[in-house]
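Hi R.,

Here's the chain you asked about this morning:
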Amino acid sequence: MKKHLKFSWLSTLIQIICFWSCTSSAQEIQDKRFVTHIVNLENQDLKFYLKADNDSNFGNFKALKKELNNKNRELVFAMNGGMYLKDGSPQGLFIEKGITKKQIDTTKDAYGNFYLQPNGIFYLTKNNKGEICKTTDFKYTPTITYATQSGPMLVIDGDIHPVFVKGSKNVHIRNGVGILKNGALLFAMSKDTINLYDFAEFFKNNGCENALYLDGFVSRTYLPKKRWEQLDGDFGVIIGETRPMD
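And here is the predicted structure, written out as tokens:
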């Protein structure tokens, strides 16, 4: 009996250590080039935001943070969530709370990173799943709660976008999102200028089968726990994680 209890206790301890180790390593990515944040939709509250209650665009995290605080919600993390037009409206598909606010853009031959084919769509579902797919593969279902379209894809089925050139001199601050092997979302913004190949390689090397470029020099991130608080800016869709205020 004592041997059985000893074995059971040891087995449980090993499982706890393994779980802690796996969870810890999954939640921290050590790369000083980037501001990174990982979201597990099972226990973290992530939404997409565009307009305030007065029907004007939030435009930046300061405005979003203020409105959330008035609703007793704390902004934990925020990042600009896709390209936008001069009036601040999304350049492509935007779904908010299950309602399509902007239709998908299927244009293939046009100027700019958004149209560098294949571009893609990042979306969330009611069953707490995050997905990234090529625009051409996207299929609308009633389970989709939020979606934003951007481009180009960074990683496609485990491969770096074929158009990207290693060593390219085309560098900017960049931000994007990828899906980790465990289904969690990896958000990253470069602290300094970087080319598209190196940015995509970061997501691939961290196990993302698919990753999407969100934007470039306008990129901003709000992440107080890592002492990164960019509250300025004037952009469109905002991706934000919140929690109830104490």
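One quick note: Residues 33-244 form one domain.

Cheers,
M.
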